[in-house]
Specification:
432 residues; alpha/beta; Glutaredoxin; 3 domains; five-stranded mixed sheet; 17 helices; 16 strands; 18% strand; globular; transmembrane; EC 5.3.4.1; protein disulfide isomerase activity
Length: 432
């Protein structure tokens, strides 16, 4: 009864403001819609992200969104962190009813708000008119649409939509509201609209529906950041990247981007199951991944499943050069670098730990000094006390006891000595 009262009171308090930091939020997150940030005080990224989280809360409130925003300190509420299996920081989760959804996109206000609006509403939304269909197409680069009436395929579609709603949009529509350019051979059908065209799902050719959606949920060619690159590890695809400097574009950068985009369009059917194409602005993330530095612009193929990569051995000038490089990666003739072997894994862990420590000192120097200085100070103190300790004298006589005469090297009693070290005479002994 007491817990119920506390929960109700907490709900009332939290509803008064859109941004909350409450230890009981997780109780009623199952009854309301919430975005919660799980953080730790020592996490530099959490401190950087906190102002963005406040902006998200303020904008959602101004939009009249039913989604509340809050945060939980996992160093204080360790049981909550354990229950939700929190491993990295900051971790962002959206709670809707008895479901929870992990946010793995860019840590920007617009991206989080888009995720919130997409996930907090119905998993699959109906498109009831041509105008509504056109409106959705003008606002989203990629959508999935189920066309037709009730069927077993529709049930599979809803199940897959629940799994992938965190990544993209799902709709239903009738044949009448589709663009005239869409031609269906059979109904019901599932289509993905992207890259200015559409592709139909074929159960015989494409196999499992969830697998097909996971493969098609990215545009054929787009700007890839560290968050979307991380998601590529879930796919069985290689990632072909043109790494360029968008702030200082060069002729070589433009050529690499053009070749990659052209390849993704003209050879889509040939490479759709093997490659994801894109470009990345800046080489900071790639340098951290390969634990080295490559001068921009350059082309690289990444295998995110094993953290491996391949670099072309010669300069890429034409689309034929790029095709030869991609084919050499597929047939195994290109040299595979990196990987997740023991040595590489150890180096990567060390690199990550070093970058984390550096970022901690940059964000919170005094707190970081305390965190690292306290255990070091304790260890130094223990070592100093151990080295300077005086050993106990096990032969020390008890009070009131007579000390035993010392023995010489042969086990005989040593001669009694005067204070000045001279042996007593026989007369002196008699006197004694």
């Amino acid at each position: 009864m007491r817990n119920l009262i506390l929960t109700v009171l907490c709900c009332v308090i939290c509803l008064l403001c859109n941004f909350v930091s409450c230890p009981l939020c997780w109780y009623h997150a199952f009854f309301l819609k919430y975005i919660l940030q799980f953080y730790t005080p020592w996490c530099a990224y959490c401190h950087t992200f906190e102002p963005i989280l406040y902006e998200v809360g303020a904008e959602l409130k101004s939009m009249g969104s039913p989604v509340n925003v809050g945060k939980i300190d996992t160093t204080v509420h360790t049981s909550i962190a354990s229950e939700f299996n929190i491993r990295g920081y900051p971790t962002i989760k959206l709670f809707k009813g008895d479901l929870s959804f992990d946010y793995k996109g860019p840590r920007t206000k617009d991206a989080i708000i888009e995720f919130t609006n997409r996930v907090s509403g119905p998993v699959v939304k109906p498109l009831s008119s041509v105008q509504l269909f056109q409106h959705v197409m003008s606002h989203h680069d990629l959508i999935f649409v189920y066309i037709g009436q009730e069927s077993l395929l529709k049930k599979k579609y809803y199940k897959a939509a629940t799994e992938y709603i965190v990544h993209t949009y799902f709709f239903t529509a009738s044949e009448e509201v589709l663009p005239k350019a869409v031609t269906l051979q059979d109904v019901p059908a599932i289509a993905v609209f992207k890259d200015g065209t559409y592709y139909l799902y074929n159960e015989i050719v494409d196999g499992d529906l969830s697998f097909w959606i996971n493969r098609e949920r990215f545009p054929s060619y787009f700007q890839i950041d560290s968050f979307s690159l991380y998601q590529m590890g879930e796919l069985s695809k290689l990632v072909a990247l043109a790494v360029v400097d968008e702030k200082n574009p060069s002729e070589k950068s433009i050529r690499y981007k053009t070749l990659m985009e052209r390849l993704s369009t003209e050879y889509r059917d040939h490479y759709k199951s093997d490659y994801q194409f894109g470009y990345m602005d800046g080489n900071e993330y790639i340098n951290g991944l390969i634990m080295g530095e490559v001068e921009m612009p350059f082309i690289i193929v990444l295998n995110m499943t094993i953290d491996g990569y391949c670099l072309p051995e010669s300069t890429i000038e034409t689309i034929e050069d790029l095709l030869r490089f991609l084919n050499s990666v597929l047939d195994g003739s290109a040299k595979l670098l990196g990987g997740n072997g023991f040595l590489q894994h150890t180096k990567r862990v060390f690199n990550k730990a070093r970058s984390t420590v550096v970022s901690m000192f940059q964000a919170a120097p005094f707190f970081s000094c305390f965190v690292f200085g306290l255990p070091v100070g304790i260890v130094v103190l223990v070592i100093w006390r151990t080295c300077t300790a005086v050993p106990a004298d096990d032969e020390k006589p008890m009070e009131g006891a007579t000390a035993s005469p010392a023995l010489d090297a042969h086990g005989r009693k040593a001669k009694e000595m005067q204070p000045d070290g001279i042996e007593k005479t026989s007369e002196a002994k008699k006197e004694d």
